[in-house]
Specification:
14% strand; alpha/beta; four-stranded antiparallel beta sheet
Length: 403
Amino acid sequence: MKLYDTQSRQLKEIDVTRKQIQMYCCGPTVYRDAHVGNLRTFLLSDLIARVVRLNGSHPYLIQNITDVGHMSEDFINDDKMLAQAKLEKVDPFEIARKYEAKFHQDLADLNIVPAAAYPRASESIDLLLTLIGKLIDADFAYVGSDSSVYFSAQKFASYGAISGNKLDSLKPGHRYEYSEDGAKRFHADWALWKAAGDRMEMVWESPWGKGFPGWHIECCAIALHYLEPDENSETSIDIQGGGSDLIFPHHEMSAAQGQILQGRPFASHYVHAGMIGLDGVKMSKSLGNLVFVSKLVAAGREPMAIRWALMESHFSTDRSWSEELLLEAEAWLVRLRRALSMMETAPTDPVISAVIKAQSNNLDTPAALAAIKRWIELSESGSNGGAPGELSRALDTLLGLSI
């Protein structure tokens, strides 16, 4: 299997003959429903796992649940978890459990095979505190004048290897990182632990005072705890997945922490899904143009059509979502089901082979779907000699199309 690796900027082979492939996919921040862009990222890990499984290896996937809030422009006064809890007038952890359950329902609706575990950040605080202490002991982190703990970016020589960003070209105030009014030694240092200040909810005791964890240490700590590399592995995990918006700063900073803690590169492969917009406009909460999977399903839309539509473009490319895209996917599924129910269908071996080849070559879902469409058209023209039951099972195994 070959996958494009963000860090090396090239296709790299993954040895899927090994007993196990260790995978980590950044999970949801559970303060709202998941939109189609979120699910595209989770679908990416599912498609990788299906190819790994096909080759006889075992994909061991861990996906975190971020339920301790989320970095925003002002994460003391504008924490997303606390803001939603205030809006719905309930406890923030009630918000977390509500949207965590809805996240799992979305995965089930789209036939995404569950991860091996979904560790919650709120239940991993002791683990995070231990690793922050180790980074301080290694002299890669320090306590700022505001009693928060920061990673010292300038001490990590490989900073920027994934994203291409360089410390000397970063400006103060880039996304998710702040000037902290002089509390940090360098503007690009990032928070491992934030002092609570006047914040009263979702805070924990620590050796540095009451506070809450930074986002980047959460994923790093959970991945290192739950994934154990092969003794001969040169990295801590095999595949780190997520949306392209996580390349920087999140994956850059998680990788830096992981390398210091383990003494080797964090991941062999960095795989990222492109962003999804709506009708040519970037999809965002501020614009009010988010398309939620749960609302589509509740409105009676075909879940497998949502999955099909998400696979119409290559996972690495940005894509615009539209009603027309979903309608087209629904139409193809109707034709596929009809072709599979016909007594005479086109030969199925060629299309199965084409899908395997496409998915093994950097998850080329557009090529895989194109092969299925050709088979449908051949079946509709009266070709025969196929085994529709075999094809139906193959499409579920390879693409997750439960039809």
